[in-house]
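A common beginner's mistake is to predict each chain separately and then try to dock the pieces by hand. The better habit, illustrated here, is to supply every component at once so that their relative placement is modeled jointly.
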Amino acid sequence: MKKEKNNEKSILNSSQITLESSLGLLAFGDIAFTAWRRLKKQERDKKNEKE
Amino acid sequence: MKKNKLLLIGWDAADWKIIGPLVAKGLMPSLKKLVNTGVYGNMSTMNPPYSPMLWSSVATGKTPDKHGVLGFVEVVPTKKALRPVTANSRKARAIWNILHNQGLKSNVVGWWPSFPAEPINGVVVSDKFQKVSPDPSKPSPIVKGTIYPEKLVEELRDLRMFPFEITKEHILPFIPKAALIDQKEAGNGLVPLSRILTQNVSLHNASTYLLRNTEWDFMAIYFDLIDHFCHSFMKYHPPKLPQISKEKYDIYKDVVTGAYRFQDMMLGRVLDLIDDDTTVIVMSDHGFESGTKRILKMPKVAAAPALDHRQFGIFVASGPNIKKNEKIFGLGLIDVAPTILHHFGLPIGKDMDGKVILDIFQKPERPKFIESWEDIKGDFGELEKEDGNSFSDDETMEQLIELGYIERPDEKIEVAILKTKCELKHNLARVHIGKKDFENAKDILLDLMQEKEPIDVAPYYIDMMNVCIGMKDFDQAAKYLKEFKNIKSEVKYNIYFIEADILVGKGMVRKALQILEQAKNRKENAEVWYKIGNAQFILKDFEKARISFENAIEMEQDKAKYHKAISEALFELGEYQESAEHALISIELVKYFPAAHYMLGKALEKMGDLENAKIAFKTAASLKQKTFHRAEKALENIEEKLNAPKGFIDKNTFKYREEQIVVVSGLPRSGTSLMMQMLDKGGMDMLIDNKREADLSNPKGYYEYEPVMTLHKDNSWMHKSKDKAVKIVAPLLRHLDFQYRYKIIFMIRDLDEVIKSQQVMIGKNPDTFPVKLYNSFVEQLKTIEKWKEKEPGVELIYIDYKDVLDKPKEMIKKIEDLIGLPLNINEMAKCIDKSLYRNKFKTEVK
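With all components supplied together, the output reads:
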């Protein structure tokens, strides 16, 4: 049985993902990486809107 | 029954020397968990230690001469360009091809080389996936063949990380003082760090995606993070090297440990994504020098960075049928593929060079075999033959150039192609040398040595000289050495080892020792101490040899041959327990080392541990490619001792041995011809050619066989002497072919008489006593005494010439006991005419 579930939720549902990211986030693999990219895009979009 | 899944993770260049302290400090918790729940050990690499060759051997269980991947680059089929090595070069089926044929699913990520992706049952994310442009303005398309099946391209494309995405949070754990780096400085560490880190994150992302979203039986993931970080930053790793500035050291000293820790973090995530009953293997293909042997300035030779690679990598395995927390010895990367096939209940190809590592299993099953997986017809998910539309791969080429693995190709492409072809052929020759297949290596090297400028033929000469030494053709090696000294090469080679080896081979051991001592005084290293020890050993200065081997071991603890050498010296010094301990260390380092098992057996036998000695001799005999005759004979002896009803049977308690060879030996003029004559009359078959005619010194003939004179050069005729008697003078005995059993009748005679008789025979004054010769004979007799004890295939009795004259029947009985067959005693006795011999002696010394 896979053991990922709780750990994954706690990482992705929290505000742990920052624009600067971290090695911990990179080590978490595709889900965290995709979430980080999404966050970066959101921030870029916000910035563009403001401009 | 379907077998549980198996996950194979490759950490290129991972080394216990770095991992050990980190695990002890709790800084690599995921690997520690695997070690605690599984088995671990050193993983022995192969020569040359070039990663694409090695990882292809991991995948196929075959050496590079069979799998065809021979270097970092290959010539494209059009023969007009070069490119990084691809899966097209691999001619042998990989584990995933075999599993495909057997209906099992595999995921393969980043394997080197795996581009173009093979159409297997499962997914291949090839080693081209992570190679992206560092320039954000340049596109990095995923070219055809990068991923199989292609439908996954869209899902995986955005999992690639780019160097420009690196943030300070990614860098600081590796370089806490990154702010001190002058980013405008050429060659600053941030560029390689960003590239290596992002490439490995891309592969990790692809892996976690596949782990979460696909069904698989076997998954292989390859990371070059540790290897590439070590190539760029190991020179800054503690302890600080004197040549490194304090400023640079302070900035980069944590990068290597950072790489290992990040690799462990990624491992932790992967372990979270697999089932509890998945078997996991983490391994590396070689280690990485981290001590005083670190090279700061690479010589200008092909694949120079590989000089930093250490012989031992790592192996860890954990899973349902794997032993718990146990160290395993003697692992080789060539054994991984057979072990994985065995895990899945599949047979091993007899043409595979590796073996199943049965030691790792709690309940090992007997491996099954087939002739070859290559002969099986059917779908193996293989690539179609390349159509000649070559592609370029500038990113990968550039990276290999930056890492120093390949030179920047010449502007003239035809020169670059020629250099590459030579390099690949040279690598093939080195593979043959590694397998001790000197004949094949020699053919290739001879060919390469004919090359003209701009090819540097010096490295081929170096290997050729070593091949000749390996083949014991020391004259030829000396000839090449002479030629080598006239070759112009950009690289300066140390040739004192070769010079010393040639001299030792030619019997000029003291001269060799002199050269080695000079080299040691210029700059000592472990190998020079080892070679000095070997020379001292040959000179029978065992105490000095022991000290030299100790020095070698102090400088390099994990060289199996050093421990085997000191084991031999200690044995000669009568320190059997220590001898056994070093033989054991040697075996722990390299299990496939028959001579070390043999030494262990000898030491244990002396210690009285016959049961274990038997195991050691048995292993020695079974491991050697060609039959290990000494070990076999020793094993027979041990079995006899073990089966003896009471105590031990003396070595010299004689019986007939099938196809035994009876040797009459002794110093010249000690009565050997008489003994041959007696055996002839006694009914034995003789190996003689009568080429040397009878004369006054030996009126009944010499009973000689001419090829004996050159026994030290050629002993291939010895089979002709099976069940016969042959005369061989004492100094040549050590050149016997030890695949046979020998019964030696060693004639002894008062040395004064022997020398005087010889003086007369060669026309010199018998009253001039040659003291030097006398001492040399005394030494030879001592040597024989020790030699007979050491050689398990030898049984020997001493027969005093005088006793033959005085009590012939008693002596004949002793001879009959040795040979183990009835002899015609009366006829033998008739050969002895006391008065004749006494008169003859008087005549000789008159």
